[in-house]
Amino acid sequence: MLYHLLYALRDDYSVFNVFRYITFRTAYAALTALVICFVVGPAFIRFMTRVKAGQYVRTDGPTSHRTKAGTPTMGGFLIHVAVLVATLLWADLMNPYVWIVLFVTIAFGAIGFADDWQKLARRRSLGLTAKQKLALQAFVALLAGAAISWLPTIQNSWSTVLTFPFLKDHLDLGVLYLPFVVFVIVGASNAVNLTDGLDGLAIGTTLIAAGTYAILTYAAGNFRIANYLKIAWVPGTGELAVFCGALVGASLGFLWFNAHPAEIFMGDVGSLAIGGVIGCLAVMIKQEILLVLVGGLFVIEALSVIVQVGSFRMTGRRIFRMAPIHHHFELSGWSETKVVVRFWIIALIFAVISLSTLKLR
After folding, report:
1. Which domain holds residue 255?
2. 100 occurs within a structural domain
3. Domain count of the fold of the chain
4. Fewer CB within 10 Å, N- or C-terminus of the chain?
5. Can you give the C-alpha Rg of the chain in angstroms?
6. DSSP alpha helices (H): ranges in 10-95?
7. pTM for this one?
């Protein structure tokens, strides 16, 4: 909105020419989202406390978490408002990629809200059934994948091609690409959802992933950089850096309130949407496989649940004290803060490795 209003005045006022730069608008989108969280956050927390929208803690979880019962949830609304407003203010609203990622944010957020609402209405820690959530997520991911595939801006017949980190080789999936996209977006959504179990863990890791994607989207949308790095050039995706910047700012702002001891939790309305947009960003810039590294911590959390469930069903034994794996370390004697900070460090290492793959091919 500001981009369209002020950049149009550049011929009369040269200072507004700065709005042409994605880096400038990304930085201010981050700052805008951060300020929105700081300004709106306290009032939102008071409102959620007043309406008794408190968290229900799973009975089989660590005993130390029982003190978290009643802490306001659905803080994802705060994240969404900050991201949406900042993106609408600073991004080029004529860019279709921006609208697709905003659609994914709202749609997955709506699924998360339905899940959170069920938990509050039933007064327990279980909301929508797994089948209901997966079906809704798959439907939204299918719509997003179809929209991305329909866009004519993907150059050099990259629309159904997978690229691989550290390699110059490609793999064309053909008709299997769209189901693969659904798997990526839904898988990312649920991986972030599983990570959201400790104060600051999911949002801190989101901050790192969003910052990484701000760099990756900018590179993919810039012909010279993409050509130099030998990665897919997808014109228009550079504008997604503004969205990523907004997500970085919103993550920082929300972390202020979500740091231990948390004043509010993001809930599924936040975690499902964040995971969905991270997966969507990976698809848009043709770095679907690299998502495994960018979101390496999310992948580890999801795999720990899969391994735990599979082991118990096949052998009757559990590999971890509890899954997801962050609870395993809690029950092993690590403090919650130590688990969170160490997991952030791991996420940062994954981010650095993922960025290094751009040149190491």
Report:
1. 2-57+65-160+167-356
2. yes
3. 1
4. N
5. 20
6. 22-50, 76-90
7. 0.93
